[in-house]
Amino acid sequence: MNFKLIFIFSFLVSSAWSDVILTKTVKKTLITDQMEIAFSNVDENKYENLEFKPHSSKALSIGYTNKATWLKVTFDNPSNIEKNFNLYFDSALAGRIEGNILNQNNLTYIGSSGSNVYYPHKTIYATVPAFPIMIPPRSSLTFVFKRTGIHRFDGRVFITDPEIFISEERIKETVIFIYTGAVLALFLYNLFIGIFTKNTTYYLYSGFIFSMGGISLNLIGGLDRLLASIAPVSDGLMFFSSSAIAFAMAFTNSFLNCVKTFPKFKYFFYPVLISGILHFILFPILRPYLGGLMGHSIDITLMLGISSMFFIGILSLIKGNRFAYFYTASWGILFTSAFCWFGMTYQLLPQSTFTKYALLWGNLIEMLILSLGLAYRIVILNQEKESAELKARENQRYQMLLRVVLHDIANPMTVVKSYHHIIKRMLDTKFDLDKLKDYLTKMTVSVDVVSEIIQSIRYQELELKENGKKQLKPVELKVVFEKLSLIFEKQLKDKELKIILPDTDYKVLADQTLLINNVFSNLISNAIKFSYKGSNIEVHTFKDEDIITIAIQDHGTGLTDAQIEEFNNKGRITSMTGTEGEKGTGYGMLLVKNYVEIFGGDITLSNTSIKDEKSGTLIKIKLKEAN
């Protein structure tokens, strides 16, 4: 009896070092440190050729390798009832794991699981490799697991009650679906903004969201779960990793304008960007030969890229870049969540609901913060655009005023100059006091016109600053035409032209000085320039309800269809030479159109005269009648 007790006690003590003794209902037990480990070539399947060694660590940490990893564990059931539980690896990217029962140095295959196994063919439908284990009463079974894959093999091995395992998997699936929906929403949101705004930054960020979402889902087995009806896609981690770092670097440069702000950043930016692109392109080709080596190289690329991006974010923050606040905060959240997740994986932190899904939630918050940053960027860019447009309008307005000064005082100054020469010649020859008075009167009118133009410009500037718009007043067309007759008397006489003006009492809403000197002065000047010598220039007025139409018809060279189209599209007509060789600036019609629109009117050009005669140019201006 004593010998039996000693034997049983010795058996239990010796078994405790290498076997898992099942005495109670299995809740959740870590067994990684109670396993043995061996390595072999991928095609090796004979147990007797394997050299197992104890694995004392509580976690597996096997780097990139082209060899197969073997794990062995023995379960003892000293009870009188059958023990059923699930054995699972908490590493979703475990590759392919084949389960076997060891029987007299022979392996009996019981099934496969892992990220490289088609979902319906797994021994247990789960996001992690899992196997159902059944140990008969008062017996012992040894299980041997063969793992092959291109990724690192990091994680732990647990045994747990099947109901607990299923419950945790259901929670995990719910988290995966919520995360996927949120990532797709952010992806589509930024993609559509990029399409509508045609801004490259949003395309780059959409690519980053898609790639980073793929990485996160791959790391927890979510992508295989979502795409369970097709072949395993976990091997696509290299594609997601390489594209993520490439998109991240390109987005960083576009979002923070890094290369321009920090020229030395290009020494990190371009090599990391090119490395990411090359890994994406070359991985399918080199995977069978350099799969493990490429794993190391993409890890180095990721480390360099992430470090340089975080560093450039801090520098941009110090330099006062407003967008860097969002950028740095987002990466800070991502780093914190990644630290929690990897800390759990390597047992630096306890496994909990927070650490288990830290990477997903951290990645989601990071994407949301950057999306808010991009939205803020739209607001800032719109403000800058509006400011630039306002400045451009101001510059355009000042250019317009300069053209007014240069162009519209030319006609009255020409009159002053002409009469000055006449008076000078008169003083040298025969003196006529009456003619002198007449000439001086006409010069005075022209000088007054120049003064009115300058005053009008001053008032116009003041009104625009105070009211934001030009104040319109009733203007008598009869007064307008009388002043035009005096201004152009000499030019009409020199070219033997006759201007026929209407006897009208119509009033229009406008500014009298601008209407005379910026609108009709330009139109009459053009009519004189392009009329044939000895012809007439006819001015007619019409009324239709509260709209007054002023039509100016000359009998000259007319306009081509291309010139009329140019005026309709651009508001101006390219400068041409008049019938007597007169030259122009080409700005006259631009000024006319601008001020007619300020008065709330409309202007049209055609080659058809009022009497339907194909002769010269017909210009119609429509203005609102003043009550």
The CATH first-level class of the largest domain comes to Alpha Beta
Total discrete domains: 3
Ends apart, CA distance between termini: 129 Å
Do you know the CATH topology of the largest domain? Heat Shock Protein 90
Strand content: 15-25%
Mean pLDDT: 80
Structural class: alpha+beta
Q: Please, how many helices?
A: 17
Form type: rod-shaped
User: So, CATH architecture of the largest domain?
Assistant: 2-Layer Sandwich
Uncertain stretches: 1-18
- Write down the Rg: 44 Å
CATH homologous group name of the largest domain = Histidine kinase-like ATPase, C-terminal domain
Helix content: 40-55%
How many strands?
20
Please describe the biggest sheet, giving its number of strands, its sense, and whether it closes into a barrel. Answer: 7 strands, mixed
